[in-house]
Amino acid sequence: MAGDAVSVAPDLYKVLFENDRVRVLDVRYGPGVKSDMHSHPDTVVVALTLLKAKFTSADGQTVDIELQAGEAGFVEAQDHMVENTGTSEIRGILVQLK
Amino acid sequence: MAGDAVSVAPDLYKVLFENDRVRVLDVRYGPGVKSDMHSHPDTVVVALTLLKAKFTSADGQTVDIELQAGEAGFVEAQDHMVENTGTSEIRGILVQLK
After folding, report:
1. Phi and psi dihedrals of A6, rounded to 5?
2. Does the CB of A95 have a partner CB in chain B at under 8 Å?
3. What is the dihedral of CA A7, A12, A15, A16, to 10 degrees?
4. Where residue A87 sits, what CATH number does that domain have?
5. What distance in Å separates the CA atoms of residue B81 and residue A54, rounded to the nearest whole number?
6. Distance set, CA B55 to CA A94, B14, B61 (Å)
7. Which domain holds residue A78?
8. Running along chain B, 98 residues long, what does each successive block of 10 average in pLDDT?
9. Alpha carbon distances (Å) from A66 to A2, A21, A29, A73, A94
10. How many domains does chain B have?
11. Do A72 and B95 touch (CB under 8 A)?
12. Which of A16, A90, A94 is the best mutation test for B, with the most CBs of B within 10 A?
């Protein structure tokens, strides 16, 4: 498994708070920014801006995701790299489930 | 225990999606709007607007909460009434934990 998102990319992922049930992250990617490979547990993503990104898994498969500001989605536990494929900063809240 | 938020106030709480780990709600209160008593499980609140509200519990105790847009907080399982004490619509995403 790849390293934790906050350890691998502390410039992109910041911990807002954590308790025994969740860890909540603020995530920001500038336009064109791409992370190194990292891991997430099961996570609810809440888009604070248009969130248009490409996820690349360890085996090279890619998935394009797009959420409008104010939308939410569920991402199952996985390792991936993320690239902001839009033209402006993307920002979201990640609710990581324990 | 009071009834589920979505059952008690379907005009204020809408289900975005649900799986075996979470139920995710969109919540909107117009200025001055007050709900009836309802229940929530442990919940992460993500504020999409300035979120200024008063929670009143069954025993009459009140708590004022304020989150800026883009902030998140944790609300432990409880019954309460909610009043939008601000002057504009408040909007948020609730990640209800199972």
Report:
1. -70, -30
2. yes
3. 180
4. 2.60.120.10
5. 41
6. 25, 19, 8
7. 5-97
8. 93 98 98 96 98 95 96 97 96 98
9. 24, 27, 14, 10, 15
10. 1
11. yes
12. A16
Interface contact B8, partner A, CB < 8 A:
no
B75 touching A (Cβ < 8 Å): no
> What is this model's ipTM?
0.95
Q: Measured between CB atoms, does B22 come within 8 Å of chain A? A: yes
Strand residue runs (E) in chain B: 13-18, 22-29, 38-40, 43-47, 51-56, 62-67, 72-75, 78-84, 90-97
Q: Distance (Å) from the C-alpha of residue A87 to the closest C-alpha of chain B?
A: 20
pLDDT truncated to tens, each residue of chain A (98 aa)?
A: 799 999 999 999 999 999 999 999 999 999 999 999 999 999 999 999 999 999 999 899 999 999 999 999 999 999 999 999 999 999 999 999 99
Element spanning A7, H or E: helix A5-8
Amino acid at position A70, single letter: G
